[in-house]
Amino acid sequence: MRKKVSLLFVGVLLFSMLLSSLGVQNYKTTAATSKTALLDKVLENVLQAVNGPVEVIITFDHDGGVEEAEVNLLKAIGINKAITFQSLPIVGALATKQQVEQLLEMESVVSVYYNQKLQYENEGSTSITGVDRVRTDENLRSKNGGFPISGKGIGVVINDSGVDGTHNDIKLGRNLIQNVFASSNLNALTGILPITYLENVPNTDSDSGHGTHVAGTVGGTGAMSGGKYEGVAPGANLIGYGSGAVVAMLDTIGGFDYALTHQQEYNIRIITNSWGATSDAGTDFDPNDPINIATKKLYDRGIITVFSAGNSGSAEATISGNYKKAPWVVTVAAGSKEGDLADFSSRGVKGKGGSVEVDGATFTWQDSPTITAPGVDIISTRVFSPLSALSTQKDLEFISPAHLPYYTTFSGTSMAAPHVAGIIALLLEVNPQLDSMEVKEILQNTATEMKGYEDWEVGAGYVNAYEAVKLAYSY
Q1: What confidence category does residue 120 fall into, taking pLDDT thresholds of 50, 70 and 90?
Q2: How do residues 404-452 score in pLDDT, each as one tens digit?
Q3: How many domains is the chain built from?
Q4: SS3 category, 471
Q5: 52 burial class (0-12, 13-18, 19+ CB within 10 angstroms)?
């Protein structure tokens, strides 16, 4: 009997060595995974450097929101400051090193991660992407009942700093159908409480203007410019989820949770995210990361996640987050209006990737963007207060004096991602049955080749909305 067991062990070991030599990586998002693998390396380092409690993100092994039994588990080990989510099995908490060690021994816990600080990814048009052709093509208009394709009725969550819904291009109560302010300050809590947020807030972007600019690119109506600075999908239903100018992982997870909880109410099909962590650049895809767990659940529910690639180029291995390599998300590099790749746009790594088993299915991930879209000197909606001098010179160069109070110029992959989110809204208007993988295929199969660049830099190439919409009809 011992001889059989030994032979079996040797066989498994040789098979594992073969997979390793082929560059194949296998991960599982189940509690059966090694407990040490479930502790975030960043959190492990933080716990060695501090004595008191730190902000952690705890993920439990089931679908749906956090259950009462799990809240009781946290209370039993002395955790008394935490936020629970409604549709995701995730908790943000203040925990000590000893409490983290206790969490890792619980069968119901998938992972414990540090609540890392993130950064919005702005670096300092619709004609190049083919969106203008979509609007004016008579054949496409005829297929759409005589109306221009505008992303009509498709819900898009702007998971960002906030949205100024007092701007007529993105007016609360019109195309901005909901505007939410939420901030997860664990230190201000007393007890383990459900996440709270304020809805129907006229302006949630009083600190940076980042999310307002993003929202205008996705679906601004161009009301203050006679349509000149109209967004990609002016018929879309925008939902702002604002966390303020300072953002951490737990804040962004709140946006994913809101999208799941309110999906049916607002027909949410897309969530766009222009933030990341340079500290997570060059890392392998990690299915136990709470952001990956969240976006997988969105994928299962038919919500497409769009990410900016990051602004740490032009070196390789600079995509700002392992979650941007998830097989089910769309990650966007930034290009110029001339069709080149922006120097600042983050790159992946040539030939790097692997296979991953998640929820019983095998996926393939690659260390590269999915697609490239305009991200240099992008004109979009300006937040009214506070007025920023950051883009003053560019604004004077590109925007007429009459429009300066309403629009501003930003560059970054933050500006590229909402272009693609808007284009996806156009695809879903003409074919609402498309899922994330089909949308990725359409974007990639219709992209314009970017000569002189490889896929680990630009993905499939420059996004082509016109060809993508035409192909979406036949899927």
Answers
A1: confident
A2: 999 999 999 999 999 999 999 999 999 999 999 999 999 999 999 999 9
A3: 2
A4: helix
A5: exposed
Answer positive or negative: Cα dihedral of 400, 215, 369, 266. negative
Point out the domain boundary residue: 66, 81, 116. Answer: 116
Query: Is the domain of 249 the same as that of 355?
Result: yes
Of 395, 414, 408, 397, give the one whose Cα is nearest residue 167. 408
CA 356, CA 348: separation in Å to the nearest integer? Answer: 18
Instruction: Give the number of other CB atoms < 10 A from CB of residue 276.
Output: 28
Residue 201 burial by CB count (10 A; 0-12/13-18/19+): exposed, middle or buried?
Answer: buried
Query: Around Cβ 249, how many Cβ atoms within 10 Å?
Result: 26
The answer to whether 336 touches 342, Cβ cutoff 8 Å, is: yes
Q: Is the peptide bond before 386 cis (omega within 30 degrees of 0)?
A: yes
Domain identity same for 372 and 403: yes
Name, in order, each residue with C-beta under 8 angstroms of 16's C-beta and a sequence gap of 6 or more.
none
Residues 151 and 285 in one domain: yes
What was the pLDDT predicted at 25? 40
Mapping DSSP onto H, E and C, the string for 247-312 reads EEHHHHHHHHHHHHHCHHHHCEEEEEECEECHHHECCCCCCCCHHHHHHHHHHHCCCEEEEECCCC
Express each pLDDT in 450-468 by its tens digit.
999 999 999 999 999 999 9
Q: What does the pLDDT look like over 301-317, one tens digit per residue?
A: 999 999 999 999 899 99
Residue 51: CATH number of its domain: 3.30.70.80
Read off the tokens for 33. 């995974």
In sequence order, what DSSP letters do the residues of 192-235 get, joined into one string?
EEE---B-S-SB---S-SHHHHHHHHHH---GGGTTTT--S-TT
Query: Which range is least confidently modeled, 52-61, 150-159, 239-248?
Result: 239-248
Tally of CA atoms within 13 A in the half-sphere of 195 that contains its CB: 30
Indicate whether 110 and 220 sit together in one domain.
no
Token pair listed for 204: 């949630």
Print the domain residue range for 236.
119-472
